[in-house]
Amino acid sequence: MSGNTRKIIHLDCDCFFAAVEMLDHPEWCEVPLAVGGAAERRGVIATCNYPARRFGVHSAMSTARALQLCPQLQLVSGNMARYREVAERIFDIYRRYSDTIEPVSIDEAYLDVTGSPLFDGSATRIAQAIRQQVREETGITVSAGVAQNKFLAKVASDWNKPDGLCVVDPMRQAEFVAQLPVKKIPGVGPRTQEKLLGLGVETCDQLQQLSQQQLTELFGRFGERLWQLARGQDNREVRLSRERKSVSTEHTFSRDLPDLAACQAQLDELLADLERRYEKHREQRRIIGAVVKLKFKDFSQTTAETRSSRPDKALFMALIEEAWQRGQKPVRLVGVGYRLDTAEGDAEAVQLPLFDSDA
Length: 359
What we know:
Blueprint lengths: L7 E6 L2 H9 L8 E4 L8 E4 L1 H4 L9 H7 L4 E3 L3 H16 L5 E5 L2 E5 L10 H16 L3 E6 L2 H8 L7 E3 L5 H6 L11 H9 L5 H4 L4 H8 L1 H9 L16 E12 L2 H5 L2 H13 L7 E10 L4 E7 L5 H15 L3 E10 L19
Parallel strand pairs: 2-4, 7-8
Antiparallel strand pairs: 1-6, 1-7, 2-3, 5-6, 9-12, 10-11, 10-12
């Protein structure tokens, strides 16, 4: 990669929770293995190893469905303290190679190695060294992507999984981006993908044919972001700390809640837990909004939100009703959350979070 180009590495541990379990239980290495909640408790799969994936098992799938696809699945409930211990050892290795590290989750991070004197400034060789050190010192494999921005580095880290390395050469960046499926773009979920397919758009090359105005009309503010990413443009810095933009809690019920009243009856307990979670942020971050999430018995889900500096139970009752009316069917999960202002007070910059990121 050339002299003035930013050099970003995205590092992602392969099936991390399952990898730690296989590390501690070598006898599980060749059998389908998943970390997740029990089927009788409406659990979901947090992650699974590659033998399990060959049966179609994947993260966020219900445990019941995973067991249907793979009856011999070895299911473990997980050990978060152990996972954090291994993750900290891995991040200690990352710190040997860069001071500019942005953790994304327990097993994922961006490193900015622009200007690094290591390995003659080669980001590729730095990534290779990191992967080797992690494997030798912890037994965990890490896939890496190397590129000149965060978007492309993240896409690249997934390119040759597991235990892979992909480098996006700036000289061939346009070619790399053009052939990317649009589903690889962060934020493009099934609905957005379906809408794009309806326009005959499956790849970034085809997406580039739509104007910024067309995309904004179709997708609102996200349309502008789509226009940029379709061209491989991403100016986000690697941040040393990630700012909390929300706090939330949710509960999956062992039996579906049959109606709106049953959903609203869960509020007292959920709001009490939400307040406990918010307490440690109260002095630094003010509330700017409230949000409710419902997941129906068929796994479809919806969120309802509103801006408010002092959301109370009545407001959450109204949001639950708004969300429930969209499905009008039994509910398996209810979540409630606060949206928080940014440190600079820029309320418009706050993004609606995924509830389970706070769990």
